[in-house]
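Input chain follows. Return structure tokens only.
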Amino acid sequence: MKAGDFCEETLKENDVYKIMTGAMLPSGADAVIQIERVKVESDNLYIYEEVKKGNNIIKLGEEILKGDVPLNKGTLIRPPEIGLLASLGYDFINVYKAPTVGIVITGDELIDIKSEIKKGKIRNSNEYSLKALIKNSNAEVFSVGIVKDDRIAIKEKIFCVK
């Protein structure tokens, strides 16, 4: 039986029925054995390990019970959460936009990472680390670039962002 099919038969004790992964169990079935764990010869089925009741079965409501809260407020919505929501029938949810974080990198000693190193200068590596860290936390990020150690220059960069 393929996934999506429905078996009308009721199995009796010691009966077996071949189903594919994801298929609904026939009535009376109480365990699933992986095909790799059995051998079929003619009408005989040979099982190579003990089969316990409930083996490889997910019961209805086992993953989420009625009344459970599948996602708490404030949860970051990533691909696994989207899959969960889809499995529950949600094609739309209200979310809040990720915050935007601005970076002002200051220092007379800083130069662009593509620039040649000169005496007393270092490459602006922190900007890249900070951008990656902020993006990793699911926020938007922008940088005004390197600003000299000058109060007026810093003030201009901060206030030009508004």
